[in-house]
Amino acid sequence: MKSKVVPLRIPENLDELASLSAQEEHTDKATALRQWLHRGAAQYVLKLVSEGRISVGRAAELLDLTVYDIHRMAETQGVELGAIEEQRRRSRAVVERLV
Hints:
This protein is mainly α. It has one domain. 70% of the residues lie in helices and 0% in strands. The longest helix has 22 residues, at 29-50.
């Protein structure tokens, strides 16, 4: 995955937290911030998939993971990725019209 440099202003309290996190994780502050960003992105992507706004495949592409990784993440966090009842009902109606 390619990286991009992005100038970013963060509040001082988050800077302090990032320093603390880096110290506890035995890493540098930039890595701690990237880890936070990735965790937040993963949660956001799972939300989008659960709402049916993006596919599991697209979620995997965005996070540079496999489809199976996305399903494991969702299971771990208790996020339902399957179709909701309304989507199932509409799908059945379409199939019945076609048949």
